[in-house]
């Protein structure tokens, strides 16, 4: 695909029955874009939003 993840690997990540921790070690997830890349593209970080929401009191 466009960012280097093979279609079969991407589909396998989407249809597996593993939880998020176990599936994080699958090849399709390991080839995914890094957080730095996503931030450079202007996408918001869910982690940063959660921290801002819960620690701004």
TrEMBL record:
<protein>
    <submittedName>
        <fullName>Uncharacterized protein</fullName>
    </submittedName>
</protein>
